[in-house]
Structure formats: structure tokens, C-alpha cells
Specification:
Length: about 270
Amino acid sequence: MENIIEISNISAPELKPYRCTAEVQLLRYYEPEPGIFIAESPKVIRRALDAGYSPISMLVERKYINGQASDIIERCGKIPVYTAPSEELTKLTGFKLTQGALCAMRRKTLSEPAEILQKAERIAVLEDIMNQTNVGAIFRSAAALGFDAVVLTSGCSDPLYRRSVRVSMGTVFQIPWTYIGSSSSNYIAELRKIGFAAAAMALRRDTVSIDDQRLISEKKLAVVLGTEGEGLKDSTISACGYTIKIPMAHGVDSLNVAAASAVAFWQLGKR
């Protein structure tokens, strides 16, 4: 195939997206237009394509050209497919490829919050969560457990950074998401205008049980999650109508935010 290109120089300019470790550069690749992101592994790439994201190029380990990446290469048409043995690709990217395939893809313009939340009934709200693994895991749980959308404050890590996309197993492409307001508590008022009751997950005494019937009965509920360590801002908790806490045993005081989100989404998701 003419579009299969053997890599002879890992410093070639066309390979820059795969060498780039500062992902904010990819985010701003076409500024002021939306930038690009890297999808990793065949399953994730397929989910991105299913969601309508446009591929720019691929980086595929040589042995997978006619193997598990063959259907993706065919589906992507005539985009460049750069290839080399595994050890050369590791030198290029700085890490060992998961299942031998990466795809550089164009971002989409993000929707306004009201656009994706108007018909939503259960949403996750992420406040200043910077850990990419946690962001990806929360998206996966939200998609799996019946939540309609995810909104993030400006202080959150980008859900389309490579690690978040990989940890989410591509579910970041299957559930609507966008940014809302700033990292201040003003965004809670914005959610209330759309009709959401807000429930802050926090270690406080003035909490309601996670299985409280009032929570389950809310037609539109936003579950608000904070960063590891510091948790939610006091102003955010005060602005929420509920504060919820997961009961703990054996003296454990809290769960990792990704694990806590899964418990909350299971209990409070649509039935």
C-alpha cells in the first residue's frame, strides 16, 4: 500500500505529534482551531473513529500492519501510516506502544454546557482533577454506569490527553463532555439554572447517606468530585444542595476519587 511509510529518521517533522511529550502543544497544534490528540491501541482508535473523530496519520508497529490494525488502516483511507519495529517506535515515542498502534486525530469543537446538559439527568462534575489516570477512570465508570455526561472545571486535566484516553478505554469518545465555568463555585449556580441538584462528595459530618431517597428521587442530579488530597473547595460544598459520603469500614477514611466515583455512579445512576 502506498500510504505505508517505513520510518528512516525518527526526527522527521511529520513524526512530531508522536515525539511530543508536552501534550498542551498538541492541544494548540492548529490554534485558534481545535488541536490534535493521540489515540492509543486499536480498540481506542476504533471507538474514536466510531465517534466521528478524523484521523491525520497512524504509527503502527510493523508486525501489526496486516494484523490487528489492518481494519483500522483500511478504514482510515489514504492517511500516512508510519511503521517500524517495536524498538524503533519506543525510541520515537519514549514509551512502549500498547498493542502496537497510535493514531493522531483532530479534536472537535467542544459543545456549550447547556447544549449537552439540557436532556441529561445524571452528570459527573470534575473539579480541578489533574491526575490523568483518575480522569480516564472516572469517564469509564460514568459511561458504564448510566451517567449522561461529564463536565470539568478549567483546572482539570484534559480528557483527551493520551493517558486519560487509554485508561478510559475510549469511553471518553462515547459520553458527552465539556468544560463549565471556572474552578470557582459559580459553576454550581450555572448547573442549578439548567435544573440540576448538586451533590458534593466530601468528608464532612453534615452529610446524607449515598442511598438517601432524596438523592435517588432527583430528576436531574450532578455528582461533584474533587481532586485527590485537597478534595472539593469549601465554597463548592457550600453551594451544593447535598453533601454525600460513602460509609467506610476498618477505619478507612476515604477512597481514591476514581474508585469513589464508581461507587457513587452505581448507586445514583439511572435505573
